[in-house]
């Protein structure tokens, strides 16, 4: 596991709020976590932190944002312990319901209601447990799109835990290709696919973007789902259009509300038109089609 670094400054409340806003704006498209935490309630002292695996690249950008004197504050570094923060943060969290889906850990499998489609995902190294607004928004959108359109095949690009691929395979008896750039995520995804009983429908593969033989063999796709980040989604727009069947649907998330228009513009140029937006916890999930239907 790669060690993460926390770059932080300590400041009073007003300064901290201003610094937090500046750093959040600077790093929102990089997807870097930025936090503003109170460390002394009586004196109203806060720490504004940026978490990164590449501190030597990020520190100069922080100094550029804060100015030459950095508000007269000292920019400090701290190594973050190699703790499985996903598992740690999800301890005690309740199952998530989205559309017909019931996303749960193994200890909550007995709480599934009649007619719900259970997806068992325990906290692990891959993103995607259903608790994040982007994941639950995608599951809701998948539920709606599959019910209306009955796609014949699907791609989950940037699959993480494979929660979306599993959801598709449970909702519709179609082949699903689930890919991720991270081999660790793909290994976790494969375990989850087997555990959820959809290994016959879901094929997992390590791939960067659309560069994989399995992608070429399965395309075009009636449904593509990608829950990643705004910047790579915009870069992938031409490839999305190329691999999406005419009349097919595209579901995108990992997009902040403030990034929605930029993403839509990038896809509009490719002839992919906005159909619906779901908003959840400051994030948006977009439904686009290769052919607008009005």
TrEMBL record:
Keyword match Ribonucleoprotein: yes
GO MF assignments: protein-lysine N-methyltransferase activity
EC number: 2.1.1.-
Alphabetized Gene3D superfamilies for the sequence: Vaccinia Virus protein VP39
Chief location category: cytoplasm
Binding site for S-adenosyl-L-methionine: 135, 158, 180, 227
Record localization: Cytoplasm
One GO CC term, this protein: ribosome
Keywords: Cytoplasm, Methyltransferase, Ribonucleoprotein, Ribosomal protein, S-adenosyl-L-methionine, Transferase
Protein's GO biological process: methylation
Catalytic activity: L-lysyl-[protein] + 3 S-adenosyl-L-methionine = N(6),N(6),N(6)-trimethyl-L-lysyl-[protein] + 3 S-adenosyl-L-homocysteine + 3 H(+)
HAMAP family membership: Methyltr_PrmA (MF_00735)
Functional description taken from the UniProt entry: Methylates ribosomal protein L11.
PANTHER family cross-referenced by the UniProt entry: ELECTRON TRANSFER FLAVOPROTEIN BETA SUBUNIT LYSINE METHYLTRANSFERASE
Similarity field: Belongs to the methyltransferase superfamily. PrmA family.
Protein name as annotated: Ribosomal protein L11 methyltransferase
Taxonomic classification: Bacteria, Pseudomonadati, Pseudomonadota, Alphaproteobacteria, Hyphomicrobiales
